[in-house]
Amino acid sequence: MAGDDPKEALFLCALQNAVKHGGVPQAGAVIGMVMGAHPELRSRAKEVSALAKEAIAEVAKLSPEERLATLQTRAPEMIAAMSEKHEKKKVLPELEGAEKGVVMRFAPNPSGPLHIGHARAAALNDAYVKQYGGRYILRIEDTDPKRVDPEAYQTVQEDIRWLGLGITEVVTQSDRLSIYYDLCKQLIEKGGAYVCTCDNEQFKELKQNKTACPCRGNSALKNLELWQKMLDHTFREGEASVRIKTDLSHPDPAMRDFPAFRILDAPSHPKVKAHVYPLMNFSVVADDHLLGVTHVIRGKDHIANTRRQKFIYDHFGWQQPVYRHYGRMGIEGVVLSTSQMRAGIKEGLYSGWDDIRLGTLRALARRGILPEAVKNAMIAIGIGDVDISFSWDNLYAENKKLVDPTANRYFFVPDPVEAKIEGAPAHTAHALLHPSDEARGTRTLEFTGTALIPKAELVSGTAMLRLKDLFNVKIAWNGETPTFSYGGDSLADARAAKARIIQWLPAQAIVPCTLITQEGEVKGACEPAVKGEAGKVVQFERVGFVKIDAVDASGVRAYFTHK
Ligand code: GLU
């Protein structure tokens, strides 16, 4: 067991590191690995650090061949673990026709801030552009006035900046209405589209029966005339639309002569005053083509659109991009519906778009999830077409990989109880800011007689607790009331008594701290030094990683990130 023989554990870790990376490992890396696997050694940091240096010196004496042979005989499982990790590294599958570079796009509707569901398309397209080189277009799809929130033009851009996408250009569809009108005219001239003035219900019935409506047979000239009447307001909402000529006998009725343009009499659009708006399938095809998009990664819910869009490509004689449709991703535990979020914010149920009960990227940022973790999690999910449910645990694991090496450690005592400890000497604890990076230094906690400890640790009957980096505390119980006395410094005694090693604070030097979790608030206290960590993710030891959200005269507010 490493706790009893840290020497062996350190030697094997140093050896594994040397075999994996070549050369001689850094002490910090070896200590980090050993402490990670054997947390009980953390209280023996000095001793471990000295032993690590010895272990590294021993490894340095061996040739590369001797290192491998030694690891093979003494810890073959460590070699297996190395290759497993290697195999697990996720790479996205190749895309055909991408060798010479790609043009891809992320095309959100500006209906509200981006949420975790959007992140998949955003991250996968981004990763492919990075993999193959090329352009990455952000296309704001705002041709449905009902799905436009004026503020979202900015929030979407902010969210994208936060995600760190490699966007090379931004296109807003409402700026391009004249382009779509022009293409519509061309398509009418080619006989690929017609203006339909049928009553909607009547058209539906004909369509169900695979029958052409009377408008379908109009000449191009007649259609151009009607199209002009759409544009010049002669027709009102519901009186005319442009339809794409498809296959009236197509087995899927949704493919039959679907609409491409519609009239809106009183649209409230923050950017344009128009009477005729393209529908998504038309504007998407126009832009994918005109912007030179080569590959489209989007959800399975767009498969029917891809089929519809093929008719438009064929009429124009354009080549379709390469598509990949990934499976649906169920996301539980947070609110994602934009309308539900908006209503909740209005009612005061949520504090804003970054309320941590919501699934927005801003809510994730607020609680300390890093954008790289979001992207890595999405790339790990990949472009498979199987429906899945999103795993928060995987996202947290990705995030932990990033924050664990950087987050400073502090004590936070939830629901604190004052423990006056009889017979305890005044004592200064030096607790590592990071268990595997001694160079970062220590925090100083000055014990002068009374400690704050978490109420939850005072389970009736508990005979001993060890205050981390300090000493042992004996507890005597008078009914439900505990009294505390000094229990010596020995870690071995604490172990023998199966005492929990808990976080604590010197009662005279604390800052009030509120920890906000998705389930509610936890009131407590933390070390004063936490005030210097505003905006950063730290670890509250034994509680989890938290983001220090705000620091003011009344104390610290932190959001729970994950364990
Ligand atoms: N704006 C569409 C959406 O957010 C995306 C269009 C597309 O991928 O073609 O669903």
| Strands side by side in the biggest sheet | 12-25-26-27-23-24-13
Main sheet: strands, sense, barrel: 7 strands, mixed
**Shape designation:** elongated
Task: Tell me the helix content.
Answer: 25-40%
Q: Please report which band the strand proportion falls in: under 5%, 5-15%, 15-25%, 25-35%, 35-45% or over 45%.
A: 15-25%
* Mean pLDDT over the full residue set: 94
Could you give me the name of the CATH homologous superfamily of the domain at 175-279? Glutamyl-tRNA Synthetase, Domain 3
Rg calculated over all Cα atoms: 32 Å
Overall structural class, as computed from helix and strand content, comes to alpha/beta
Q: How many beta strands in the DSSP annotation?
A: 27
Each distinct ligand: glutamic acid
- Could you name the CATH topology of the domain at 175-279? Glutamyl-tRNA Synthetase, domain 3
Number of helices: 17
| Oligomer class | single chain
Low-confidence stretches: none
The CATH architecture assignment of the domain at 175-279 turns out to be Alpha-Beta Complex
Descriptive notes:
It is a single chain. By secondary structure, the protein is α/β, with parallel strands linked by helices. Among the domains are: 7-87; 175-279, Glutamyl-tRNA Synthetase, domain 3 (Alpha-Beta Complex); 423-505, Ribosomal Protein L25, Chain P (Beta Barrel), CATH 2.40.240; 511-562, Ribosomal Protein L25, Chain P (Beta Barrel). The protein has 17 helices and 27 strands. It has a 7-stranded mixed sheet with strand order 12-25-26-27-23-24-13. The protein has a 7-stranded mixed sheet with strand order 21-18-19-20-14-17-22. A hairpin with a 2-residue loop joins strand 23 and strand 24 (520-526). It starts with 5 loop residues before the first helix and ends with a strand. The mean pLDDT is 94. Residues 107-109, 141, 284, 298, 302 line the site of glutamic acid (GLU).
